[in-house]
Every structure is written in C-alpha cells, then in structure tokens.
Amino acid sequence: MSTTLSLAVVGAGPVGLALALQAARARPDAAVSVFDMRPADQDVAGDPRTLALSLGSVQELERLGVWPAIAPRAAAIRAVHVSQQQPALAFSLLGRAEPELLLTSEECGVEQLGAVASYGAIVAPLQAAWLAAAEREPHRLSARFGSTVAACKALDDGVELDAGIAERFDLAVVAEGGVFSGQARKALAHDYGQTAWVGQVTLDRAAGIPGTAYERFTAQGPAALLPLPAPVDGPARAALVWCVDASDDPVRDLDDAQRLAVLNHAFHPRVGRLTALSPLKAFALGLNAERTLVDQRTVRIGNAAQTLHPVAGQGLNLGLRDAHALVDALRREADVGRALARVEWQRAPDRWALIAATDFLARSFTWQLPGLSSARGLGLAALQALAPARRALARQMMFGWR
Fold first, then answer.
1. pLDDT tens, position by position, 31-60
2. Which residue of 42, 143, 228, 323 has the smallest Cβ count within 10 Å?
3. Whole-model pTM?
C-alpha cells in the first residue's frame, strides 16, 4: 500500500500513543512512526504516578479499545468536592460554615465524572496496542523505541528528524513533555515558587460519596485527594497532591506523623480521618507554555505545549483533546497546512481558558490581598447555589471548552 502522509510522533507517553493510534485509524493512507528513548521491553506498567482522567478522556480510551485493560486498575470519580479552609470574613460575619462546592455525576446525568489511574496502568495498554498495530501493518506503522530524537529541523514542505539518521516526514508531533524543573523555558514561563508534595494516603472510613475527589484551598496553597482503587474489603486510598510555598515550606522538615496530623487538620471533615501516609516526593511548580501549538510542520501537544499547575488536574486531558483535534483535522483536510491552521484555530479557546484559569488560581495563593479569601469563598458559594452554573462547570471539567 502506498502512503500519502508521513507522520512522526516523538514521545510514547499517553498523549503520543493515543494520537498515533487515532491517526493510524483515521488515515489508513498514512505512515506513522512513534519514537521514544525508552526500550520497548522496559516495563512501564508499574509506574505509580497518578493521573486524573476526565470523562471525555475515558471515552477516548474506550474508543481506542484500551479502556477494558485500564478499568480494573482505575477508580471512578463520582463527585468533586471543593472547599476553603482559611476563614472567609463574609462567611464569619454571616455565621455560616466555610464555603464549599459539590459536583456529582448523578446531577450531571452521567455514570462518572472521570477516573483516576496510574501512569503505568494507562501507558502499558496503549503501548501494547501500538506494538500490535505495528506488527499487523509493518509497511506503514513503526515503533521506534530505544531511539532518541536529537534534532528536529524544519523543511519547506516537512520536517527532518535526526534519530541516528536523518529522516524526512510531512509532519512531526512532539509529545515529549517532562516536568517543569527539567524543561527548557518556553515563550510563556513563570516559576510559581511553589512545591508539590505527592504521595498516597490511607483513610479509615469512606466519608461522603464514594469515589469523591477533594480539592482544599488552604492558606499555604491547594491540596487535593484523588480516589484510588482499594483492595477488596481493604481501606480506602487516595493520591495526595499538596502544594505549598517553596520559600517557606511547612512540609519539608516534618516527619510522617507530623505531616499526617497537619493533613487531618487541613482537609474538610467530609474526607474522614487519614490513618497512613506514604513517603512524599517534591516537585517544583510553574507555567511553561508555547504561544502556539503549530510551528511550520511541527506540532507540540500535551506537556510539550503547556505544563500547568496541578490545581485543576487537567494537564493530561488537555493533551488528549489536542491529539483528538489534530487527528480530526488530518482526517477532514487532505492538505496538511490547512489541517494545522484548523487545529490552531479550534484549540485556542479551550487551551487558553485552561491556561488562564490555572495560572490565576496558582498566582492567587501568593497574593497578600485583603478580602481575597472571602472573594474566593463567595465564588464557591455562588457556584453551589446556582445549579446551571454548577453543571456548566462540571461539563467543562469533563469535556473541555466547547
């Protein structure tokens, strides 16, 4: 079979592999090559990093046929509870409880708002699916694992990749992201001066709605708990993301018992009591984003295009929506240039809305402005009181800006 489009995908993470699988199906005339520096026989299934998936992302993985392999190692998100710990003056004067917002799948008419799974649980089935596809169609699909792309050079009508030898492609998609501290700075870069402490907690009882994700605004920064799969008859578990001021870190010098005590004080009573805490890892937080996704015949998606603060937990979902939009444009447009122009135009509202929202929230925790906590609390209370606005927010979390 002859091919009329050659596509290189650099980075075999969840976004890169999802894009490659979609492109292979949507464009049967395309030759698709996936490059990644890790060897194909490296076991990725055990990578414990926790990822939050929106409902739209779950549906994308279902369409790719890999969700049945992920689901047994995933926990459904059936509710999202957002609250604020620090006193809000307006609420104190009114004698009301602290502000909170509750979004539920039942109210939105869906089975779940999203899911939580480990990086390994998501990537291993995607990688297996790509390797199987490449074995079925070796004439047009290839898995170039163990290949480091050293350079990406723009040509008049394509891209030249150097992965040991120079090869020309009509289009290159860079999906190799990494974390903020290890990235070269992009056009929009800002160090928030915050540290994310990441680990897992065990709870002694299930409080509130089973499968609830909790977001807690504290004086030091946001803290989140994401539900994790629990053993049969075992205790409930959750992934912890605890963001604090890096220059005055209240977590670093505490032992595990002290950290657990602080967390039990910080989180809302709906959470229940935290009984155990895993060792925590620290990551620097910042914004690092390109102004555009497209640069001639190179497209950057996922963390390669924008690395965000984890306050909204939407980084992976944004990357998967980028991938879906690119493949849809390549399916609709025979001309690569028109397809890329379509992607840039189509993705801008969703992308910039999320960048702006997460950047505002992240920066707001460093502002020492009178009444700021009250304003944030009033915003939560207003959303809780207005059902249409609450459901609109839930839809945006599930599917992005449409």
1. 999 999 999 889 999 999 999 999 999 999
2. 42
3. 0.92
* Cα–Cα distance list, 76 to 66, 127, 317 (Å): 16, 23, 15
pLDDT, mean of residues 67-86? 93
What pLDDT was estimated at residue 84?
Answer: 87
Type of residue at 218: T
Measured at the CA of 151, the angle between CA 146 and CA 156, to 5 degrees, comes to: 125
pLDDT at 230 over 80: no
Residue 207's pLDDT is: 63
Burial class (CB in 10 A: 0-12, 13-18, 19+), 250: middle
Residues in the chain: 402
Spatial neighbors of 211 by CB under 8 A, at least 6 apart, are 75, 76, 77, 78, 79, 112, 227
Q: Which long-range contacts (CB under 8 A, 24 or more apart) does 381-389 make?
A: 381/91, 381/99, 381/101, 383/101, 384/99, 384/100, 384/101, 384/102, 387/107
Separation in Å, CA 372 to CA 87, 119, 364, 369, 386: 11, 36, 8, 6, 21
> What letter represents residue 307's amino acid?
T
Q: Beta strand 74-77 with 298-300: parallel, antiparallel or unpaired?
A: unpaired
- Beta carbons of 129 and 61 less than 8 angstroms apart: no
Rounded mean pLDDT of 288-296? 95
- Strands (E) in 229-339, as ranges, are 236-245, 274-277, 281-289, 294-295, 298-300, 306-307
Query: Could you tell me if 11 and 304 are in contact, meaning their C-beta atoms sit under 8 angstroms apart?
Result: yes
The single-letter code of the amino acid at 341 is A
| Biggest CA pair distance of the chain | 73
What is the Rg, in whole angstroms, of the alpha carbon atoms belonging to the chain? 22
Walk me through the domains of the chain, giving residue ranges and CATH numbers. Answer: 5-46+122-186+289-361 (3.50.50.60), 69-116+190-285+366-399 (3.30.9.10)
Give me 227's structure tokens.
């539900």
Q: Pick the more confident residue, 187 or 98.
A: 187
CA atoms within 13 A on the CB side of 215: 18
Residue type, 34: V
244 and 309 Cβ atoms separated by less than 8 Å:
no
Residue type for position 314: Q
In 61-176, which ranges are E strands?
A: 74-77, 79-84, 100-104, 114-118, 141-145, 151-155, 158-162, 166-169, 171-174
